[in-house]
Amino acid sequence: MKKKYAAEPYRIKVIEHIRQTTKEERIKILKNAGYNPFSLRSEDVYIDLLTDSGTSAMSQEQWSALMIGDEAYAGSRSFYRLESVVKNITNYQYFIPAHQGRGAEQVFLPQLVTKKGMYYISNIHFDTTRSHVELAGARAIDCVIDDCFDLQTYHPFKGNFCLNKLEKTILDKGKENIAGIIMTITNNSAGGQPVSMENMRQVSEMAKKYGITTIIDGARYAENAFFIKEREEGYQDMDIIDIAREAFSYADVLLMSAKKDGLVNMGGFIAIKDHEELYNKCRTYIVPMEGFPTYGGMNGRDMDALAVGLMEALDENYLRHRIDQVRYLGDRLREAGVPVQYPIGGHAVFVDCKSIAPHIPYDQFPAQSVTNAIYIEAGVRAVEIGSLLLGRDPDTHENIQSEMELMRLTIPRRVYTYRHLDVVADAVIHVFEHRSELKGLAFVYEPPILRHFTAVFKPIDSL
């Protein structure tokens, strides 16, 4: 029986022309970019699946909202409109805008690191979060369930915390040494996998038991709420916004990159439930780091567009199509035998490159090799989520071996059609069928922090 996928709940009003290059051109272009897709020029990319961060198409209502932006340095009307929306969605008392998620992280995370030897615990820290934890003088520990690493077996909430690991970590490290617990929803590095409401509730109860602050990394909270509605008993008849509100009730703080489920090209924020002292510390610290507390690195027009986008992202018809687009690409790859994280996640399809290229060691970055190969094949840009992204141990400086070597095919919101995804699928399938030709990579230049963004590589046989 033919699978059904939701049609686009919008029609296209403005288009952007994209250039197609030849395979010969792409070979030269990739070499000049140091075999790092981050260093490719956008104009040399046909279908850009590098990230869903800041790459959404905005609605006509958002474009209209831009025109009423108030660019006052202090006390902007746009700030108060955005604050009202965030408080409505979260039921939190305090709100501070930031230029994006990492701006919120760099302001907030150091506030809970009060001494040396502290830790943040997450289901899985994403790259910028892990880096800001380390820059704050703490260490990052991941406590995701083991099912996360079984890529082929179905589990409805592979992003969940392992509660036993979590409690053991708290007891081993000492509750006084845990700066905070970060619930990443959806769990990006786990393959865009959702976290169940029951798991969030249990994590919250454990945090309260030990007196630990609980933080939600909510970049994709609306997608997580949709999965809860689909998969968790008792939520089928609830509105998405009410599911989101319940999730936020299990945390003390929300850090959000609004470039994802805010449907804007730039923006983020810190929301704090009811801790006035913590709010005042962040409000003070944001001034030198981001800007005055009523703009925090954002233009007034961007705050107004975000106020609209946050509500649009909670629309169930939009979310159904959003999840179906990702599922469509994942289904095409699975049907061709390409190993991917299953079930398909919320914002991306994660391809298991450890299985595709077992002949490439982890420290020669098999997922980066596959990522480069699909660019050469079809001009598709993706991103590695594996040992390259994890980086080096901050104490030993040894390469950290990732449990999973994944290539993330990240779908921008409201940008591409199903036919574009067919082009992506055909390219990945071709590379999979010629996987024995893939070669590992070695560093020519390795940055000390967030190395995957700006590193330069060479294929092993050309060194």
Key terms for this structure?
single chain; 463 residues; alpha/beta; Aspartate Aminotransferase, domain 1; Aspartate Aminotransferase, domain 2; 39% helix; globular
Task: Describe what is shown at a glance.
This protein has 463 residues and is an alpha/beta fold.
Give your account of this protein's structure:
The protein has 463 residues and is α/β, with parallel strands linked by helices. It folds into two domains: 23-52 and 316-462, Aspartate Aminotransferase, domain 1; 60-312, 3-Layer(aba) Sandwich (Aspartate Aminotransferase, domain 2), CATH 3.40.640. The chain is built from 17 helices and 14 strands. The chain has helices spanning 23-32, 60-66, 77-90, 101-108, 127-135, 163-173, 197-210, 221-231, 240-249, 276-289, 300-312, 316-335, 353-356, 366-378, 387-390, 418-433, 451-454, and strands spanning 47-48, 94-98, 119-122, 139-142, 178-184, 214-217, 253-257, 268-272, 348-352, 380-381, 383-385, 406-410, 441-445, 456-459. It has a seven-stranded mixed sheet with strand order 2-8-7-6-5-3-4, sandwiched between helices. Strand 3 (119-122), helix 5 (127-135) and strand 4 (139-142) form a beta-alpha-beta unit. Helix 2 (60-66) packs antiparallel against helix 11 (300-312), helix 4 crosses helix 10 and helix 14 crosses helix 16. The mean pLDDT is 95.
Which radius of gyration do the C-alpha atoms yield?
Answer: 21 Å
Average pLDDT for all residues: 95
Shape: globular
- N-end to C-end Cα span: 51 Å
* Biggest sheet architecture: 7 strands, mixed
Keywords: Lyase, Pyridoxal phosphate, Tryptophan catabolism
GO molecular function: tryptophanase activity
Modified residues (N6-(pyridoxal phosphate)lysine): 260
Protein name: Tryptophanase
